[in-house]
Design brief:
This protein is α/β, with parallel strands linked by helices. Helix content is about 35%, strand content about 20%.
Length: about 375
Amino acid sequence: MPFLKRRALLAGAAALPFLPRLARAASPLPAVAEKDAVIAFGHIGPVSDGGWSTTHHTGLLAAKKAYPAAKFLEVESIPVSADATRTFRQFVENGANMVFVSSEYGDLLSSVADDAPEVAFLECNGHHVSDNESWYYIQHWKVSYIIGVAAAKMSKSGKMGFVGSFPVPSVFGCANAFLLGARSVRPEATVQVILINSWFDPQAAAQAASALIQNGIDMIYTNLDDGSCLQVAAKAGIKCATWNTDMRAMGPDAYVTSLMLDWTQFYVDQIGARLAGRWAGDGHTLLPVGHGVDRDAWGRTVPPEVAAQADAVRTRIIGGWNPIQGEIRDATGKVRVPKGGSLDDIACYEWNWPVEGVVGLKAV
């Protein structure tokens, strides 16, 4: 999920029927018979990582089942370098009608899309929009808020930790919303952040989790691709919440929940629109809670009353309530969101400053 320099202003609309749709001037790409379709997937990591890339591979498998006559291409562990552009061009040369890239590659992808206007390109966690390129992601901050509610109720000290990758919006959004959820039930809660400069480095993740525990943290949240933090938490006798998939087997007593990803319906719908001649570069999609992103079933040591309190918040969010409400101050004490105000979904997607009480992140 690397973050690259943004090329264009956000524009467009959601692609799924349960999200609002804005009109775009682009004409739909021509229909393609399923037997003639070539659908390509490119991943930032190995599909065996048990996390981020695994979830996208699962979506590909669902698409294969839905469209058995189509041909599917898949490349794992694509580096964020010129090699990525070569891979994306190879997709086009191999006849791809649609290309899904499960992390942001910025210009490395857009330069290919600009040269292949007859091909649909979709970039996960992207920012560039054109007649044949869109981006998609999940409203992870809302689930992180829910997890924060449960975490604060279970923490003995109120001192919580977060292990992330880079100082990018997805990390700011997770850590910030986690603390805001925690402070909704425990105003003195804090979150200490350690970044490891990788999405998948089990050794570094374990070291970061150990450092947090040595600093008195008794609750860890992580959005990395593996379960190393959970394993460390289990050995230390504290609690941990993870991302991507159900990781409870790595530490059943430590497991609180996981922010779960499910791209299957999105991929099936997007491919269906492309084959039917209805895909027109719809701008962006942010999958909401209950439709692509959600919390996992609660861990076995989560008290029923804690689960019920957090799930009451989840119900409100699914009903349309925005939990990212002011007053919100940043780490310097400056009011960023006034009382009565809120951050909308695009602002949360672009979040690049730490809220008051988050330590270890600096505004970018």
